[in-house]
Amino acid sequence: MSFTLSLRRPFVADHFHDLPGFQEDRHGHNWEVEAAVELAREADESAFAAALEAWVRQVDYRLLNELPALAGRNPTAEALAEWALRELQASALRPQWVKIREKANYWALCRAGVDR
Question: 14 and which of 28, 42, 54, 113 could share a cystine (Cβ 3.0–4.6 Å)?
């Protein structure tokens, strides 16, 4: 039997968008990551929590534009959700989705098994 568990973690980070014809000023957000994974047993919950915390440590109180994992990409909620999903997959977990909330009315959800 398996079950789905979701966890949420807040983080604070700055970013700016640098697009052709438009450069946004650096600004910060109180972000939130939420992820759901399929677990085979309850004991795997601690591995999930540790993997999510490890990802948050990489972004918390950072300028997202300077992070190597986002090199060549604008640090959008979409890019962060995809990165977090891949990190959870690399931790031998089976994430179903990752949601990044940038602000109260803006979020992005990346689902496992959906290629870009």
Answer: 28
Run of H or E residues at 80? helix 77-90
Cβ atoms of residues 50 and 92 within 8 Å? no
In order along its 116 residues, the chain shows pLDDT tens digits of: 788 999 999 999 999 988 888 889 999 999 999 999 999 887 789 999 999 999 999 999 999 999 999 998 999 999 999 999 999 999 989 999 999 999 989 999 999 986 65
∠65-49-4 over CA atoms, to 5°?
110
Q: How far is CA 97 from the centre of its chain?
A: 10
CA 69 – CA 63 distance, rounded (Å): 12
41 Cβ neighbours under 8 A, 6+ residues apart: none
Token duo for residue 79? 């890019």
Which sign does the torsion angle of CA 14, 109, 116, 5 carry? positive
Q: Which pTM does this prediction carry?
A: 0.92
